[in-house]
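Task: fold both queries, return tokens.
Query 1:
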Amino acid sequence: MRRKDLVWLEATQQFATGFSKCPRKQFAAIMVDEDNQILSLGYNGNIRGQCGDLCGGNICTREERNIPSGRETDIGCVHAEENAILNCARQGVSGKGAILYVNGEPCAKCATRIAQVGIIKVVCYGGSYPQNGLEVLKTHNIETEVIIK
């Protein structure tokens, strides 16, 4: 583990607690290029311009429906990894060849998006909120580094 990887990973935690309003788990993702420059930042939250702070406006849809973590990932907020990728697209910036830092393991849905955009490495915290995206990343030959917090 390189020192700068730890710095970026800790930054994801700071951004998550600073920006995400999710009552379940706050996530953030930072994409950097080969020169260690930030390409994009994303955190889990509602759709841009939506009223209210939560995915259901003023309520957490997942909490209201009692949906377990890692299930029915299309219900609820936009995930941090998704937001980072979409924010790149919004600004016309390629994520191809990028490294993605995230303060939790990606879900399978986000892992497919990570593979599709051409991200080459994912560095994440793991162990406390396990998802099933790591297998998707490995299947697509994306380097992964998981730090158990």
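Query 1 returned. Query 2:
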Amino acid sequence: MKIWVDADACPAVIKDIVYKAAVRRQLMVTLVANSAFRIPKSPFIAFLRVPAGPDEADNAIVDRLEAGDLVISGDIPLAARVVEKGGLALNPRGEVYSEENIAERLSTRDFLDTLRSSGVETGGPPALSKRDRQLFANSLDRIVSRK
């Protein structure tokens, strides 16, 4: 199992949890983004810079993804593509996207997007809480323990 991180929008605290898990479990993690940032020096952590533009990071991840790989992302359309290709998707709040729930999540996301484009203010998600971080760490640990 490889871990791919949709890194542009991934909170730093979530990246830190992923870094620690990668080193502890000796799993390859690749952060994909269109802007450079520092990553820890480790043979298990890599960075892939992609051109700026919509879906560039998503496309790079899906192109390289193998069945059974894990993608960390809050991007539901990306998660749908990952699940369709046989991968696992985990959002920064610890929710695992699966064949059983991805269609519903995608439908809700599209509905809210339609509301926003028609001028309705739907608000954004709440700030990442300590509980969210713990849920993420627990979900990540369960997933990588199965490898």
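Both queries returned. Flag for query 2: The chain has a mean pLDDT of 92.
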